[in-house]
Specification:
Arc Repressor Mutant, subunit A; about 120 residues; alpha+beta; single chain; two-stranded antiparallel sheet; 2 domains
């Protein structure tokens, strides 16, 4: 499976909107995303330190439960939230011959932060 940065951002927004501190299943089939693809991204995001998760394994298979966003997850989401900043970051990546979704997470985060800083003249 390929990593999809757009899906990562959508997942971060979904987790942020959750009103409970109880672990939960995240399903995005109503948005056209397969459960396995979402679970794969949850695992990747946990490995990257964006969210905390735990895996439940039963006779019926395994499931990834989401606990919460981490500090880094909030920081990344705050940098990616502004559509103008995201569009500019995509434009910069394209000028360099790359798609934003194909760049390493840390490069995407740095690019978003740099774009945000330049937005405010910092």
């Amino acid at each position: 499976m390929k990593r999809d940065m757009e899906l990562v951002i959508k997942i971060l927004k979904e987790v942020e909107e959750k009103d409970s501190i109880e672990p939960f299943n995240l399903r995005m089939s109503d948005e056209g995303y397969d459960d396995d693809l979402v679970m794969y991204h949850l695992i990747l995001m946990s490995e990257a330190g964006l969210i905390e998760t735990f895996e439940l394994t039963t006779l019926g298979g395994s499931n990834v439960m989401v606990k919460r966003l981490t500090w880094d997850g909030h920081e990344f989401l705050d940098a990616a939230r502004n559509d103008s900043v995201m569009s500019k970051a995509k434009e910069i990546a394209k000028q360099k011959g790359a798609e934003l979704s194909s760049l390493p997470l840390m490069v995407v985060k740095d690019l978003l932060l740099a774009t945000t800083k330049s937005w405010f003249g910092l």
